[in-house]
Amino acid sequence: MKDLRRYLVLKYVQYLVLSSSNAISTFLGLLGSLYTIVILQSAKVSSKSTAVLISSLAKADILVSVSVVSEMVVWTFDVSISSTAFTSALLQNLLTANVHISCLLLSCVAFEAYLITFFPTESRHLRTVKNATLTSRVIWILVTAECTLFQTDDLLKASSTSAPNRSPCVLLFHFSSTAAALLKSLSYFLGILLRIVNVYIYYKIFFSMSNR
């Protein structure tokens, strides 16, 4: 459990403290996720709701791995890509999806820690493996839909730039562009809100434990 706590601290620093990820934090995050996945396979780790959320958090780094490996292959072997704009947008959207999934899951872990600290008995029926699994799936589905919208918007922008007067999907282009812009704004403000909420939760937990 100490290793899992260190992993959560690493992820909090990576996604909720740093303004943007760098090479060092990304590398450490990938190593931590790989180690955590191995730990969670051990029979010594009990199957609890927190373990389910942490497992989903670690698996989210698969998106980062795909992006990093793809860029390394292109750079190392000088692979020519037929649709550079599409691939570049896809890799960036995968990184964005990873950040959003990780922030939401970390917030779920923080909320569960809050319930355990202040409402251990009353919240027991909420802190189940079933609810944690459902929450993780909903987060993945929502962020996947978001990533799909961003990718569609990038694709339509590229096609409209290459043939602006021949695009048969002008209405779709405006709709996806507006929806993507609104969603990006919402994600930005939600990210700020999650940072504030997480700081408040751990502030309350820290002083509660200190008083005890």
Automatic annotation (TrEMBL):
Q: Which PANTHER family match?
A: G-PROTEIN COUPLED RECEPTOR, GENE 5127-RELATED
| Organism per entry | Eudyptes chrysocome
Q: Which GO terms describe its biological process?
A: phospholipase C-activating G protein-coupled receptor signaling pathway; positive regulation of Rho protein signal transduction
Protein name, UniProt field:
C-X-C chemokine receptor type 3
Q: What InterPro entries does its record include?
A: GPCR_Rhodpsn (IPR000276), GPCR_Rhodpsn_7TM (IPR017452)
- What is its subcellular localisation? Membrane
* Highest rank taxon of the organism: Eukaryota
UniProt KW Membrane keyword: yes
Report the GO molecular function annotations.
Answer: G protein-coupled receptor activity
Q: Does Membrane show up as a keyword for this record? A: yes
Chief location category: membrane
Lineage of source species: Eukaryota, Metazoa, Chordata, Craniata, Vertebrata
Q: Which UniProt keywords apply?
A: G-protein coupled receptor, Glycoprotein, Membrane, Receptor, Transducer, Transmembrane, Transmembrane helix
